[in-house]
Amino acid sequence: MLEIYFEDETNKVDEQTEDMIRKLLSHASIEEELTGEGEVSVTFMTDQNIQEVNAEYRGKNVPTDVISFALEEITEGEVAIVPVEGMPTVLGDILISVETAERQAKEYGHDFTREIGFLALHGFLHLLGYDHMTEDDEAEMFGRQKEILASFGLER
Fold this sequence. Notes:
It is built from five helices and four strands. The longest helix has 18 residues, at 135-152. It starts with a strand and ends with a helix. It has helices at residues 15-31, 47-58, 98-108, 112-127, 135-152, and strands at 2-8, 38-45, 66-70, 89-97. The protein has a four-stranded mixed sheet.
């Protein structure tokens, strides 16, 4: 089972949207055959706040749509998190810019709900180790996103 914690710094995301994301990410965890208990946090931010995070952690001083921080990913100088039996695995954090999601929904010709779901799923797949640094990785990740969105019923 996947536990999802929400924080809305924008006061723009309603309970229906949070419920849809909860169901979508739970569906994705089943599709990805995750076992055991897991935890994810989803924070809805402004462009200004996500730009600050993007600048600090990625060296890109521009707003972006979604950023993920995987807690199971080990970078230089970090120590591995050792799972404790009976305790949920904390997968990480997903940060979503609501303002960028609104703009992109209009640009791509679909509604806000579909865009915010897409971004939440995209961030979630990053937490599970998917990436799009190479063409092959991008094809795999975006193909998986499309499959999960279609099986959930959240297509364009």
